[in-house]
Design brief:
Blueprint (H helix, E strand, L loop, with lengths): L3 H6 L14 H4 L4 H10 L15 H12 L5 H17 L1
This protein binds protoporphyrin IX containing FE (HEM).
The site of protoporphyrin IX containing FE has 17 residues, from α3 and α4.
Length: 91
């Protein structure tokens, strides 16, 4: 299966491991704005460079939204769907 984290690590020899975007425990802590922010600013001292100059603002937002969908958490998504359907009936 495709693993974005691993793909990113190719050619990256700066020590820190890239974030595993499939890890629900990590992704639970990251807002879409936080993802956008890291893509924009990078993380100093790691292989995670700033993409502010190579990608447009819209492209960085698009990436942030995309990354937020990679999390491997079908149980959570299903639970969310049930809440959605319940709330839909109330209003
Ligand atoms: C378009 C390509 C990339 C995108 C969209 C991207 C996105 C991100 C995001 C959103 C984070 C923060 C996640 C968090 O806070 O846990 C992150 C972290 C990181 N990325 Fe990337 N990344 C890209 C390419 C790369 C590449 C090419 C490398 C290595 C050469 C890299 C290395 C890292 C590392 C080491 C971290 C963790 C930094 C830390 O210690 O907090 N990334 N990346």
């Amino acid at each position: 299966m495709e693993q974005p984290g691993r793909e990113m690590a190719n050619g990256c020899h700066l020590g820190a491991s890239p974030t595993n975007f499939r890890d629900a425990n990590r992704m639970d802590q990251l807002s879409i704005f936080a993802l956008y922010n890291t893509v924009t600013l990078g993380v100093e001292g790691t292989g995670m460079v700033s993409y502010a100059k190579t990608l447009t603002d819209a492209e960085r937002w698009n990436l942030a939204f995309y990354i937020s969908t990679l999390v491997d958490s079908p149980k959570q998504v299903n639970a969310g769907k049930m809440v959605w359907n319940r709330v839909k009936q109330i209003f």
